[in-house]
Amino acid sequence: MLRFIKIRTYEKNCFPTLGLVISSITFAQDRYEVLKKASNTNWRGYKLFKTESTSHYGTAKLRDGYFMLNKNHQLISGSFNVNLKTIESDDLKKDPKEKKNLENHLKGEDFFDVKNFPIASLQIRKIKASNDQNHPLQVTGDITIKAITKPGIFKGNYLLENGQLSFFSDKITINRRDFKLIYEAQYADVIIKDDIDLKVSIRA
User: What is the dihedral of CA 104, 106, 109, 111, to 10 degrees?
Assistant: First the structure.
């Protein structure tokens, strides 16, 4: 049975909180804390060509996060953090040695350098309607990896039912070079595509 935490807060005065400027008019908001065990971050990277047959894919677990809804139950902001130490490769489960090698490489200094930068984050700054029926929200946010922050825009959807919030993103594509995710071995970097695709499925 999934549980949820809902905290009703009241904000006054004008001040910035995680990039969201709060109006001086008093209003009610609901805060939904992320349920880590019921949430997933999925990643996919590509070799040679951007096809599923030439890709590695897997998951990483969330450390924490929350979403904010206004009094009309509309999603208005949010923030969540991914624990990069939990990166796993799902496509190599039948080859434990190669699976471990890939995971160690992704966690190493060339890529995510999880020893020094264990957390990646997304802060939702703006939400507006999109023309996609399956993902009717266009989400603008800040993505931070290795202490480098870049803007990102993607589509998503959420459902509020029986006091539980479910959020699903469409594909979020980042350029690994923007975040200095570079394989230093000779020639190897040129055969790895720059795009990394992410999807999140979050319960709160």
Answer: 170
pTM over 0.85: no
Cα(32)–Cα(65) distance, rounded to whole angstroms? 9
**Is the CB of residue 33 less than 8 Å from the CB of residue 5?**
yes
Please report the sign of the dihedral spanned by the C-alpha atoms of residue 166, residue 171, residue 176, residue 179.
negative
pLDDT in tens, 173-193: 999 999 999 876 655 555 788
Given a contact cutoff of 8 angstroms between Cβ atoms, the answer to whether 112 and 144 are in contact is no
- Which residues of the chain form beta strands (DSSP E)? 6-11, 16-17, 20-21, 27-33, 40-47, 55-70, 75-89, 119-129, 137-145, 148-161, 164-169, 172-175, 192-203
pLDDT tens by residue, 101-113: 999 999 998 889 9
Distance CA 167, CA 151 (A): 20
